Amino acid sequence: MSAPDLLARDGLLQDRPAALRRLLARPELGSLIAAVAVFLVFAVVAEPFLRVSSLGTVLYAASTIGIMAVPVSLLMIGGEFDLSAGVLVTTAALTSSLVSYQFTAVTWVGVLVSLATTLSIGWFNGWMLGRTKLPSFIVTLGTFLMLTGANLGITKAVSGTVSTKSIADMEGFESCRRLFASEVTIGGLTIKATVWWWLGLLVVGSWVLLRTRFGNWIFAVGGDADAARAVGVPVARTKTVLYLGVGFGAWVLGQHLLFSFDTVQSGEGVGNELIYIVAAVIGGCLITGGYGSVVGSALGALIFGMASKGIIYAQWNPDWFKFFLGAMLLLAALLNAYVKRRAERGPR
Predict the structure, then answer these.
(1) How far, CA to CA in Å, does 70 sit from each of 126, 168, 293?
(2) pLDDT digit of tens for each residue in the chain (348 aa)?
């Protein structure tokens, strides 16, 4: 049972109007307030922050996090983590580039092989989790280390350097770029393809979570896997599908990186998995699973985009950005834990 259901059942908010109770029970409420606060701060201290061109930059920064924050938040609601998500993006880009350059000279072949690769890695994580019963922290940490080594080792063995060769002159490059790395300018606002991918994943993820039986399964396995299994929920299969979702998100973002710059550095992506998790937690996902929101993860990604660019526009020392991110994570985790405790304790 999700935290909003617990709040309603226990009567925690029964003394408030129904609409207000529903609002206060939403997991993304805290992230919405935080997003408004961050926007107002930078709107006051950084004049360039309010320019139309700056909005496009903020949206782009948010979308490169949000594309992965959507599947990562679903996975966390299902009670699991994926520490390999950051380097999996790089694996997706490297696979597409290396296959295209070394074997086919057609970029679409590399793109499809990359999709099969990332989905296979996602399936492997889910299968290992179900078969071994090891914590997802251990399983995906192992995958993280293997992918980090494979990205570097295979790239150096094939290309002789730590980066891939340019594929800009290959057949299919321009059509791939239009799909994954194009941009459109409307009234001075430049919107990159990642923003559309992000919005599409956000809509699909929200619909799956809130309007389908599979969404109920996600909440169930994250809240209590044993109880969910007892009532017939396919726990292992549900978690495997969630890992496949992470693989798909990594593929989309990896193709964007490749077709934006046409080369890839094999050491990129390390540490980005923590940013995806931070976005999900700021958005209302509990570390313990069973509670959260896809929309909240989008707000978490937007906060990241506003903060990373707002600090630059305000001419603050960018070294403090990680401090801000850590503080936001702790505050969000404390708020989420407080809501859960109050929900479980009931009215006093």
Answers:
(1) 17, 30, 9
(2) 454 453 344 444 444 555 555 655 677 777 888 888 889 989 999 888 989 989 999 999 999 999 999 999 999 999 999 999 999 999 999 999 999 998 887 899 999 999 999 999 999 999 999 999 999 999 999 999 999 999 999 999 998 899 999 999 999 999 999 999 999 998 889 999 999 999 999 999 999 999 999 999 999 999 999 999 999 999 999 999 999 999 999 999 999 999 999 899 999 999 899 999 989 988 888 888 888 889 999 999 999 899 889 888 988 888 777 787 788 778 777 776 666 666 555 544
Q: How many other CB atoms are there within 10 angstroms of residue 341's CB atom?
A: 9
DSSP code of residue 101: I
Residue type, 34: A
From the CB of residue 254, how many other CB atoms can be counted at a distance below 10 Å? Answer: 29
* Number of CB atoms found within 10 A of residue 337's CB: 13
| 101-121: b (≥16 Cβ within 10 Å) or e | beeeebbbbbbebbbebbbeb
Burial of 49 (0-12, 13-18, 19+ CB in 10 A): buried
Cβ-in-10-Å burial (0-12, 13-18, 19+) of 314 comes to middle
Instruction: Give the DSSP letter string of 120-179.
Output: HHHHHHHHHHHHH---HHHHHHHHHHHHHHHHHHHHHHHHSSSBPPP-TTSBTHHHHHHH
Burial class of residue 318, CB neighbours in 10 A (0-12, 13-18, 19+): exposed
Distance CA 79, CA 92 (A): 25
Separation CA 21–CA 347 (nearest Å): 13
Q: Model pTM? A: 0.89
CA distance linking residue 25 with residue 36, whole number of Å: 19
